[in-house]
Amino acid sequence: MKAEDVSNIDIANFLPHREPMLMVTSVLEIDENSVSTQFHITEDCVFLDNGKLSETGLIENVAQAASGVVGQTFFEKDDLEGTGNKLVGYISAIKKVEIFQLPNVGETIVTRAKLLSRFDTGEMTMCSLEAETFLDEKLIVSSTMNFLIHEV
């Protein structure tokens, strides 16, 4: 889905997280293998350290953004309110994380994730995703993580 198709979707309806733990502001693009999200860093973000988004906050942003690739398949295509399912996701392994820069309050980061592998058991989905986070087109995070996602 391109940006014009997802711009009216409230991402909070599709993630189990709520403020102050919600680390994705909007979805820019999404398809069956990839996602691009945006996060605007505000002063009330719980992951701030001396006016910068901490390493933990960057990892949580990547996890929430990346989970959208597989998580979307648990919803019906016409369910734009996210009422069809309740999902829980877990980071099962952080295979690689490289953090090159911490963004400041007031800045907006863009995270792009792509699916590397997926295994559905019927009750749970196990997947591996690769993600990169950018600040003004400058790479600030490179990561690979494994996730477990299931309905509750």
Automatic annotation (TrEMBL):
Superkingdom of origin organism: Bacteria
InterPro entries in UniProt: ApeP-like_dehydratase, HotDog_dom_sf
Protein name as it appears in the record: ABC transporter permease
